[in-house]
Structure formats: C-alpha cells, structure tokens
Amino acid sequence: MMKQQKPWFDEERLRILDQRKHAQIQWLQDPNHSNVDNLHNVRREASRNFKNKKEYLKAKLDELELAERSTI
Fold first, then answer.
1. CA-based R_g, the chain, Å
2. Residue 38 and residue 51: Cα distance in Å, rounded?
3. Nearest Cα to 57, choosing from 12, 26, 25, 19?
4. 26 falls in which pLDDT band (50, 70, 90)?
C-alpha cells in the first residue's frame, strides 16, 4: 500500500523540516540556553508554517468547490 502524498507538503516544507532537524542536532550536541531558544523558535515557526499552509489550501479547495457548485 502506497503512502498518500500530502499536496501541502512541498519544497518549502522540506526546507523547514531540515532547519528544525539542524536546530535539534545543535541542541543535542551543545544543550546551552542559546541552542534551546533556537530550537523552540524553529519548532514554533515550523508549526505555524505547516498550519498556515494547510489552512490556506483548505480555504482554496473550499473556494473551488463553491465555484464549481455555482456553475452547475
């Protein structure tokens, strides 16, 4: 069974995940206050970005469905 691809997961999301992974590695190697703050900030931004992208695409999909219904 193949995994379903998520249409909102694109190159930008992949770059954000790489940033998050890099921040976590930095923190694991040197768990100082600066690296902890950086990790928290990167995680927060990644979560916001993913949520916003999914909400944007859902709104676009809803808009297209509404337009399709009005033309029928």
1. 18
2. 20
3. 12
4. very high
